[in-house]
Amino acid sequence: MAQKPSIPKGTRDFNPEQVAKRQYIFKTIQHVFETYGFQPIETPSFENSETLMGKYGDEGDRLIFKILNSGDYLNKVNDELYAEKDATKMTSKISEKALRYDLTVPFARYVVQHQNDIEFPFKRYQMQPVWRADRPQKGRFREFNQCDADVVGSKSLWQEVEFIQLYDAVFTALQLEGVTIKINNRKILAGIAEVIGAQDKLIDFTVALDKLDKIGEEKVKEEMLGKGIPQAGIDKLQPLFTLSGTFEEQIHSLKTILSTSEEGLKGVEELEFINTGIETLGLKTAALQLDVTLARGLNYYTGAIFEVAAPKTVQMGSIGGGGRYDDLTGIFGLNDVSGVGISFGLDRIYLVLEELELFPEAVNKNVKVLFINFGDTEALYSLKAIQKLRAAGINAELYPDTAKMKKQMNHANKRAIPFVVLVGEEEVKSEVYTLKDMIKGEQDKLDLDALIAAVK
After folding, report:
1. What's this model's pTM, rounded to 2 decimal places?
2. Is there a binding annotation on residue 200?
3. Which of 50, 49, 94, 91 is nearest to 71 (CA)?
4. Cα–Cα distances in angstroms (integers) from residue 140 to residues 21, 103, 126, 295, 351, in the given order
5. N or C of the chain: less Cβ packing under 10 Å?
6. Residue 296 assigned ligand-binding role
């Protein structure tokens, strides 16, 4: 008995309707990217392992899909190494390539490798699949698409302003109102750590602070104490736990909290600049919110940090994020190339649009007209009309077989095709077509021009 086919966990098949909806999101994001002057690039699905390994921390390295060398991949493993059964040591011998984990590191590699051909500042966008050996759950898959846009070779904060506008433009085009663009700055987090005397525990401090809305103030304080942050320093954080109000009011409070930190005040100044720009230019449907607990990507972000939250009516993790990095290309030997970038979480955006029923009906570009097949003569006559319909931008097709009419009509119903054309001997002689509206149940005999006008 044949084994029932299946696909790996964390991957998905997409039916025609799902593909149409995904393409709708892709095309919307792509259009806005190009409107803002970003140019497309693509990189290989897999990279040399040395390009990826060590760039995402221990956890990231564990989630990278390694590709076995072709041929006898064990021939470089001696008996002693094989006996050790140490996967980390053996991996470098049996695997020299890996599926890309994200689009950012391959982009950094691309910039360094092609630096002599690139005109800086370089604005690129990239929309391709990535792979992570993660535990599958709602909104998290092992194969998924990322939609990234980055600017490298410029330290100007106007780029941050434009990225916030870009987020707003995309979600407005998708009719997804109520999105919140959260922003913080790595310098502010470093400044707070400096003020409380925990410069050497920046990561511990920010990881704990990031949990404020999940576990509450007291638990966060307990975690900080457990990580060795002194009580006196935690007491200095008290104003931070109650930080609220408008963007401007929070900025004012931060200036007081960070008054003794030059780096922290620099971060406040940068956020103030960005907010002033957005206040002047305005946003259509999204809101900009300062969130000092936001601490994603601390290993490489050096300035602004972004995270996009779906409307509050939907239970969903972040649907986008990004930030400023001053030296990402330094991992490949090209120093002092500043950049800033953002990413859209296509799969989560899909789930949000689905839940809120925001996909337009016209997204699924179904066949609009099906010609019933009564025989070769009638089929050839129909195909001449189908040529004209297609030239007019109307999706049309001929049922391929001369099956019973009931079967052909059921086929149209199951595929939700709104119009059916019946062409028999009489229609061929009279050079007309019988058009049946499958929704209203009405039908008329029309010439070709009238047929095109009726279904267009």
Report:
1. 0.89
2. no
3. 94
4. 18, 17, 20, 20, 11
5. N
6. yes
